[in-house]
Q: What sequence folds into this?
């Protein structure tokens, strides 16, 4: 039995019954696509076109199409890679870590956040694969015997660790997400009218019937997957950070990188979850499920991780000075005052100062401010990766080879293109899949629902739960509603 | 083979839980209970044994770990040793990340496949269900009926007494 605190805000508002939850979430899947969704999809598809064009140019003409030069040989591609992988981390944090900590509020947002993880990792994977120059040989990263004999992969290389980390992360997230989707697909299947819908959702639901034994196993599997995903999500960005930390480039060679990158990943991921959720809740009328309380809680996590990132920035600077290594010191002075000072300033402002505004209650509970904040954090986190990568490379040990980096149109096209790819996938998900985990929301409904007014007048007629039949021998079954709106 | 079931439809999980206990106490064997979400405490009420999946998970994880270590040690240590700056061929600390990732990979996918197999979940074009509302907002208790005609009316009474909002009969064809 869950503990219900009198001071807790309800997790689902609007006095929903179990059936209301099914109706509200399935509505989007069953209704004809609305005009706003179509408009959004056309924009996303346009940028997907930009993506395909940029990929074509990159593959056909080679990496020379990018703005890289001999000195700055990693720039936007790896920046985008780290940025996208980082965004993905919030989804796993919500689905795995918050599950282990029994944070019930995650129920309304975990589905969409996990979808975000999967799509973000797909976008991320594009960059290293394209950077190979010959993406059709991408399978060479796996330890396979080659035609010349058994020259295997080098397991001492962090880039190879990355291959294992990202592919494990992607497949594990996908399986975790799909297992969660099965009961909800069954709900849609049992409501489906059309032949195609009935067939598709029957196939997708894997024959789920909701029997007691299946649920018991489902919960065990979810818990174990959450248990292994938790260290996994920490390991993924740790390994990403080792791509840099194990090198001897000043500004990269720091032991603080793994925790600093993981915090940054969760920080940017929560910003992206907020951006997506704020749009989704309005477009799909899910204000009762993704409440202001949810937004405030996500804001708090963003603020905490943002502060960790801020401390990491300062620590890095301090250690550079304290190490007395001339090159290390120069790398950091150059970051802040060199030709890329503007990128450093953007990073500091967006990532260190902005999240501190969340201390103010009014900001935390304000939808427009949160939206702006989340966008700013996303921009700031992109600049963080850009600053780390480009400013450390552009002035190396040999001043005669110092150079500047400027992106080519293809660089920009690829970046915007992956945004198009991401939003295309997310919009398709939001239309055809249940965006909120119905089964999980139903489990918390009885203990958190409030009987406040519903936003939707047509629901008001059947907002009150059906009266329970008289039972003898059973204890009082009507849940006590502890909430301050009564 | 066609089997007949009595379906008790319940509106609330706590009512269902008590009904399950009382029906079992009355000596009736419950075929299965279908619910839109996991009802906590129903495992004990139905007498479902604790799942052994965590033990399977442990073995999958150990398989992954052993495979990853064997793969890296065999490939870099024995099959094709490479001299990289005179460093040891079997550099165990550098093998930790891949070993960890493969442990997780094997655990997760082994678990998922085991779960699908033992629960009988696989894509199929048609799913026969007892009551379509069981995935929406109703809790359905299914009791297998034998040939005696009076059994259904007795069960109806028992289920109604324990809070069922309706009691139906359903024929299911099983292989």
A:
């Amino acid at each position: 039995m869950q503990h219900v605190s009198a001071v807790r805000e309800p997790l689902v508002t609007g006095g929903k019954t179990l059936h209301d939850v099914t109706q509200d979430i399935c509505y989007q899947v069953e209704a004809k696509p609305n005009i706003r969704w179509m408009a959004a999809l056309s924009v996303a598809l346009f940028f997907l076109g930009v993506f395909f064009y940029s990929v074509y140019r990159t593959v056909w003409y080679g990496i020379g199409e990018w703005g890289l030069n001999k000195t700055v040989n990693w720039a936007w591609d790896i920046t985008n890679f780290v940025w996208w992988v980082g965004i993905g981390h919030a989804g796993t944090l919500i689905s795995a870590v918050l599950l282990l900590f029994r944070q019930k509020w995650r129920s309304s947002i975990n589905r969409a956040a996990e979808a975000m993880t999967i799509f973000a990792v797909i976008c991320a994977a594009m960059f290293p694969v394209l950077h190979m120059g010959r993406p059709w040989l991408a399978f060479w990263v796996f330890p396979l015997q080659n035609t010349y004999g058994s020259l295997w992969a080098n397991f001492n290389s962090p880039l190879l660790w990355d291959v294992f980390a990202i592919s494990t992360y992607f497949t594990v997230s996908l399986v975790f997400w799909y297992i969660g989707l099965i009961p909800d697909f069954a709900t849609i299947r049992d409501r489906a009218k059309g032949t195609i819908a009935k067939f598709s959702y029957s196939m997708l639901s894997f024959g789920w019937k909701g029997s007691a034994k299946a649920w018991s196993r489902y919960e065990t599997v979810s818990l174990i997957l959450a248990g292994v995903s938790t260290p996994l999500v920490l390991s993924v960005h740790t390994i990403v950070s080792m791509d840099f930390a194990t090198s001897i480039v000043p500004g990269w060679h720091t032991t603080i990188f793994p925790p600093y990158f993981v915090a940054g990943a969760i920080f940017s991921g929560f910003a992206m979850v907020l951006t997506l959720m704020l749009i989704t809740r309005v477009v799909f009328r899910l204000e009762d499920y993704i409440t202001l309380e949810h937004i405030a809680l996500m804001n708090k996590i963003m603020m905490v991780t943002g502060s960790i990132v801020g401390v990491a920035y300062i620590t890095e600077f301090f250690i550079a000075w304290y190490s007395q290594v001339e090159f290390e010191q120069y790398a950091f002075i150059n970051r802040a005052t060199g030709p890329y000072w503007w990128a450093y300033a953007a990073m500091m402002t967006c990532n260190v100062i902005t999240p501190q505004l969340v201390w103010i209650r009014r900001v935390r509970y304000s939808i427009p401010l949160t939206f702006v904040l989340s966008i700013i954090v996303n921009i700031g986190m992109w600049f963080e990766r850009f600053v780390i990568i480009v400013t450390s490379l552009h002035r190396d040990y040999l001043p005669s080879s110092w150079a500047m980096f400027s992106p080519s149109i293809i660089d920009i096209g690829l970046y915007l293109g992956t945004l198009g790819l991401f939003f295309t996938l997310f919009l398709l998900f939001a239309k055809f899949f249940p965006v909120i985990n119905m089964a999980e929301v139903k489990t918390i409904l009885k203990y958190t629902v409030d009987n406040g007014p519903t936003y939707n007048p047509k629901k008001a007629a059947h907002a009150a739960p059906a009266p329970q039949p008289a039972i003898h021998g059973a204890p009082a079954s009507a849940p006590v509603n502890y909430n301050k709106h009564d | 083979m066609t089997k007949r079931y009595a379906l008790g439809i319940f509106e609330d999980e706590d009512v269902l839980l008590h009904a399950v206990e009382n029906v079992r106490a009355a000596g009736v064997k419950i075929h299965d209970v279908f619910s839109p979400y996991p009802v906590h405490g129903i495992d004990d009420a139905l007498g479902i044994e604790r799942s052994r999946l965590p033990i399977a998970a442990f073995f999958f994880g150990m398989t992954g770990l052993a495979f990853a270590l064997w793969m890296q040690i065999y490939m870099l240590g024995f099959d094709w040793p490479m001299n990289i700056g005179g460093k040891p061929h079997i550099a165990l600390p550098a093998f930790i990340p891949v070993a960890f990732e493969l442990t997780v990979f094997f655990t997760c996918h082994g678990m998922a496949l085991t779960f699908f197999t033992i629960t009988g979940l696989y894509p199929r074009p048609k799913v026969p269900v007892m009551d379509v509302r069981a995935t929406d907002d109703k809790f359905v208790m299914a009791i297998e009926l034998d040939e005696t005609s009076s059994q259904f009316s007795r069960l109806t009474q028992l289920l109604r007494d324990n809070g069922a909002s309706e009691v139906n009969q359903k024929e299911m064809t099983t292989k």
